[in-house]
Amino acid sequence: QKEVEQDPGPLSVPEGAIVSLNCTYSNSAFQYFMWYRQYSRKGPELLMYTYSSGNKEDGRFTAQVDKSSKYISLFIRDSQPSDSATYLCAISRAGNNRKLIWGLGTSLAVNP
Amino acid sequence: GAVVSQHPSRVICKSGTSVKIECRSLDFQATTMFWYRQFPKKSLMLMATSNEGSKATYEQGVEKDKFLINHASLTLSTLTVTSAHPEDSSFYICSAYPTSANTGELFFGEGSRLTVL
Question: pLDDT for A13-41, tens place per residue?
Fold first, then answer.
């Protein structure tokens, strides 16, 4: 079983839709959870970072962590064509271990 | 957020030559930097962890003599692809986190696309 599972998509939605992106992980030792956005031929950009169960909101983005189910989500409200990108989840263990375990990334297309 | 700069963003070279890619943390010090490789439509693959003032730690299957890493200062790490071959063509990305931060938050460079002819 992979440490992080993420459906690669592709996911295609109309502009204004609510987008739900998800990852599952297998080891409860992972304590830090991140979502990155990557545009084509660019480096990943950190979108959301959290280390506790529950929701964290930033503008149109909401990150949700359910440690009991080992399930993390990223919601995008009022999606825009500029949100079209690949979204990668990443997790790491507690403490100072910055070695990230990555999901495959989900390719999202928001159609005008 | 913190800024990580990578240079060059794109490089084309002949087979057999060596190519150096630089990764700089512009507004913070980074004891540790990470080098990734990414194939088209694939996730990031960690190649090595670069430690300031000491040898890099390579992931299993990554040839350390092929991919030379030097982390000479708290703001600069370099990756040299030696005797490059077409199969080394890829997107190379570095990342770093502020030494002073006690979180898992990483910041990434823009990536360097290497094409070996």
Answer: 999 999 999 999 998 888 889 999 999 88
Nearest to A76 by CA among A21, A14, A7, A11: A21
- pLDDT digit string (tens) for B65-97? 999 999 989 999 999 999 999 999 999 999 998
End-to-end CA distance of chain A: 38
How close B105 gets to chain A, by Cα (Å)? 7
A–B interface: beta-carbon pairs under 8 A? 58
> Is B104–A51 a contact, with Cβ atoms under 8 angstroms apart?
yes
CB-CB neighbors (< 8 A) of B44 in chain A: 44, 88, 102
CA A33 – CA B12 distance, rounded (Å): 36
Per-residue model confidence as pLDDT tens digits over B21-61? 999 999 889 888 999 999 887 788 999 999 888 899 999 99
Q: Which of A41, A100, A104 sits opposite B106 (nearest CB)?
A: A100
Q: How far apart are CA A44 and CA A4, in angstroms?
A: 17
User: Could you state, in chain order, the average pLDDT of each consecutive group of 10 residues for chain A (112 residues)?
Assistant: 86 97 92 91 89 91 95 96 95 70 93 95
Tokens of B24: 């700089």
Interface test with B, best of A58, A99, A106 (most B CBs within 10 A): A99
b/e B66-100 (16+ beta carbons within 10 angstroms → b): ebbbebeebbbbbbebeebeeebbbbbbbbbbbee
